[in-house]
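Might I ask for a little of your time on a matter of protein folding? What I wish to show you is a protein chain and, alongside it, a tokenised description of its three-dimensional fold. I should value your view on which stretches of the chain appear to form regular backbone elements. You will find the record immediately after this paragraph:
***
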Amino acid sequence: NTESDDAYICFDTNQDSAYFSSDRDGNFDIYIKTRPPEMTINEWFDGNYSVSAKVDSINSTGNDKCPYVFRKYIVFASDRPGGMGGFDIYYSVFRKGKWSSPVNLGPDVNTQDNEYRPVLGYHEEFTNNFMIFSSDRPGGKGEYDLYLRGITFPER
């Protein structure tokens, strides 16, 4: 933690990298902190503080938050320019040691309102992944409601 707002931590599949959001430079950006290979996860948690790096291929001039890593995909919420309104959900694919340019999940997921805190999952009886996210779109039961969608990411 820093003196800024650090939030929404998520670990990659191997638990060797932690992703989180922080507003330490003004807007929220997504950061990564990598565990040294010689350290166990307990040693890493108990170790001294070290600076985290921005995930530059993902961050924008807007607020980029709520990262969630699932296998080779990361999903996150952003109010970056060019979205559908409010916060939209974007995804990126990890290839050749780098995250690809983010892609907006489009009108099947995003609205002019806020979509937030995406989480990906998989069930062996289905051919696609699923995503759970919250939204304050009209027609829900409260301020923010949870939504479930089947989702297939295009291979690009």
User: Anything to note?
Assistant: The chain is about 5% helix and 45% strand. The two ends are 35 Å apart (CA to CA).
